[in-house]
Amino acid sequence: MRRFLVILILAAALTGCAGAAPATEPDPQTVPTVLTLPPQTSAPAEPSMALELTMAPLPPQSILLEPTAPGEREERCDSAVVDYSNTAEGYVMVRFTAETDKRLKVQVKGPTTTYTYNLPQGEWTVFPLSDGNGAYQVGVYQNIQSTKYAVVMTARFDAELADEFAPFLRPNQYVNYLDAPDTLAQGAVLCQNLTDPLEKVAAVYDYVVESLSYDYELAATVKSGYLPELDKVLERKKGICFDYAALMAAMLRSQDVPCKLVVGYAGSDYHAWISVWTQEQGWIDGVIFFDGSVWKRMDPTFASSGQRSPEIMRFIENNGNYTVKYLY
Q1: Nearest CA to 14 among 118, 158, 159?
Q2: Same domain, yes or no, for 180 and 308?
Q3: Within 13 Å of residue 72, how many CA atoms lie on the same side as its CB?
């Protein structure tokens, strides 16, 4: 299956930047919309009768590749478990099973980059293998005082992904649409009847930019560990850059468009944005909008809050203004 990749960014999560595939439906192009019954031959001639059946349009659909922790490959201790049964699909799942009121962290160390996450107590959490193929180390840590953490357990494994897009087609902690039915439904409506991934990108992008406004109050008060609740963002139609990026990534992934969340710097500010890969064109670095012939830097936050002003668009289009730090 052709994979198309969109990079999206995540950013202001840490600063104040500021969850089965649907059943196959019949193709309306191959199902007759009118069924004609022939006249009866065993009875006296009667006027010919026809029964017309009109097919209702197929409802918009979304795809939810729900992560699982089957326990086929795992490491565990008395208080935590790391399930790496699905590394080929680009993710691991971690759960802290003991009772605690201490802060918990997970560190995913890949071939080139180390990612640190907060870990909620008692529930499975999904973390992407953003570094691709190679050796990984996943550690669980518990706070002991101030900013000091003690090692609870460590799991080591080698990952060989089914393809480079595997980590970016599923929900994870930062792009969590397992419990966001409204977000999935909106993405399905926006992408209904669209097959070209770039058309889906344009539809979702335009919706996010035109519908959301920047939440300056949240940006000024957001704390470390903030995670978007996508359906709430959709309802409020306001958010910080993390919300913009996560919402767009969720809609695109649920429409079978691989999408990366990128965290990095826009100038000197910690920020988030999107990039795209297509089979026909390869990488289109930093897509932002389609003007009829050219795709440009996609940064839904700046494009929205700046009302697509010429100055903002020039800044967005300049790749030199962006520095990649993490991919989700």
Answers
A1: 118
A2: yes
A3: 7
225 and 123 belong to one structural domain: no
Q: What are the CA-CA distances from residue 142 to residues 97, 104, 111 (Å)?
A: 12, 5, 24
Q: Is 153 domain-assigned?
A: yes
C-beta separation of 8 from 244 below 8 A: no
Enter the tokens of residue 82: 């790391």
Our CA angle for 121, 126, 129, nearest 5°, is 135
Q: What is the pTM of this model?
A: 0.75
175 and 163 share one domain? no
pLDDT digits 0-9 by tens, 74-123 = 999 999 999 999 999 999 999 999 999 999 999 999 999 999 999 999 99
pLDDT of residue 102: 96
Whether 202 and 146 map to the same domain: the answer is no
Is residue 32 domain-resident?
no
255: domain CATH number? Answer: 3.10.620.30
Query: What does the pLDDT look like over 192-231, one tens digit per residue?
Result: 999 888 888 889 888 988 898 889 999 899 998 899 999 9
Measured CA to CA, the distance from residue 234 to residue 240 in angstroms comes to: 12
Which of 49-63, 143-157, 293-307, 311-325 is predicted least confidently?
A: 293-307
Q: Supply the pLDDT for residue 73.
A: 98
Distances (CA, A) of 267 to 111, 262, 272, 276: 27, 15, 12, 21
Instruction: Read off the pLDDT of each residue in 247-276 and give the average, rounded to a whole number.
Output: 81
Q: What is the distance of C-alpha 99 from the center of its chain? A: 30
d(CA 60, CA 53): 21
Tell whether 194 is covered by a domain: yes
Number of structural domains in the chain: 2
pLDDT value for 25: 38
Residue 205 sits in which domain range? 5-19+170-327
